[in-house]
Design a protein that fits this description.
The protein has about 325 residues and is α+β, with helices and mostly antiparallel strands. The chain folds into 3 domains: about 5-95, no CATH class; about 110-250, Jelly Rolls, CATH 2.60.120.1440; about 255-330, 3-Layer(bab) Sandwich (Phage tail protein beta-alpha-beta fold). The chain has 10 helices and 18 strands. The strands form 3 sheets. Strands 1, 2, 3, 4, 5, 6, 7, 8, 9, 10, 11, 12 and 13 form a 13-stranded mixed beta sheet that branches. A 3-stranded mixed beta sheet has the order 15-18-17, with helices on one face. Strand 4 (about 145-150) and strand 5 form a beta hairpin. The protein starts with a helix and ends with a strand.
Length: about 325
């Protein structure tokens, strides 16, 4: 049975049938299984929601043919929902009924008073960036991340354009939220990749931990566990994929332990190709014959490539997710 504003009005006025009452009761209980939208609201935003609910219900009062009967029901519902504990149900009810609740949660980083840092990776390799909370971001070529100079307040908000892999420092009291085009990704401490290129479907894929991915425009949300990926299709449909294909795609971010002692760099590349199922190309004989010593304990491929690059005066180019090319810096 479809839940409509008219059905809720009948429920409040105790004029619905037993079947209708059961449908509304079941619908309301389903809120317990959904994320609490108040978790991402500041006190100011919660106040704005209260005002929105009040104005929404007042407008319903004015248009009612039976003002006294309808007004009593509306006022009773408003009193129940005015407390913080009831705001979550109110927000969900408004969302279910197709009502957009305007808050500042879509782009809160724009409203922050803290100084913002916008970093763009203009190179052809993956660049490591450490954020103020010690979270690590591996920024893909030609991608940009915007974040405050210092995280303050309830949330750690960043904005991403392009692609990046995040290793988020755990902080249960301050969720980490990434705004990337049409998707909002919320975590507390985990590792995952976000893609948000223009004219391509946005994606979020998880390696460790658990994240929620939302498309606020379509009011959709999915929860992702390791080796799961969410893709936004047609700007509104979040599709979840799981299994070996996702694991293979995220292989370069899976951490391994390797050690080399005075080994040729060509042998190092061969070992990396095997461990990560990738292809590292190098046409320079001098680079391939470099003697290399290194201990890579619990490191991802980009971290290993970055250490090789720094210690051998070389550089590399990302050809694709599984293909890389080394060259000298000269």
């Amino acid at each position: 049975m479809k839940i409509t504003p008219q059905l809720i009005e009948k429920y409040l006025n105790n004029t619905c049938t037993p079947l209708e009452r059961k449908a509304v009761d079941d619908w309301y209980r389903s809120f317990d299984e959904q994320p609490n939208p108040i978790d991402r609201m500041t006190g100011e935003e919660a106040d704005a929601l209260r005002e929105f609910i009040y104005n929404r219900f007042k407008s319903g009062l004015a248009s009612s043919d039976d003002g006294e009967r309808s007004g009593g029901a509306v006022r009773r519902l408003y009193r129940v929902m005015y407390g913080v504990a009831g705001l979550a149900a109110a927000a969900l009810i408004l969302t279910k009924l197709g009502v957009f609740v305007p808050t500042k949660t879509k782009q809160p980083f724009m409203a922050q008073a803290e100084e913002q840092i916008a970093f763009r990776n203009a190179t052809n390799s993956i660049h490591k960036r450490v954020l103020p909370d010690h979270s690590t971001v591996w920024l893909s070529p030609h991608s940009t991340i915007t974040y405050p100079k210092k995280f303050a307040g309830r949330y750690r908000d960043v904005k991403l354009t392009g692609e990046a892999f995040f290793e988020v420092t755990k902080d249960a009291k301050h969720p980490f939220i990434i705004y990337s085009g049409e998707l909002t990704t919320k975590v507390w401490g985990t590792s995952f990749r976000v893609r948000a290129y223009q004219n391509l479907p946005a994606e979020v894929a998880v390696v460790t931990g658990k994240v929620s991915v939302q498309n606020e425009k379509a009011h959709t949300e999915v929860m992702l566990l390791p080796n799961q990926k969410a893709t936004l299709l047609h700007h509104e449909q979040l599709v979840k994929n799981t299994g070996s294909a996702v694991a293979a795609e995220m292989r370069i971010w899976t951490k391994v332990s390797l050690s080399f002692d005075d080994a040729k760099l060509s042998d190092v590349f061969t070992a990396l190709n095997k461990n990560f199922d990738i292809s590292i190309n190098c046409d320079d004989a001098r680079i391939k014959n470099y003697a290399f010593t290194g201990d890579f304990t619990n490191q991802s491929l980009p971290a290993i490539l970055d250490m090789i690059r720094q210690s051998t005066n070389t550089n590399y180019t990302v050809i694709s997710n599984r293909s890389f090319e080394f060259r000298t810096n000269q």
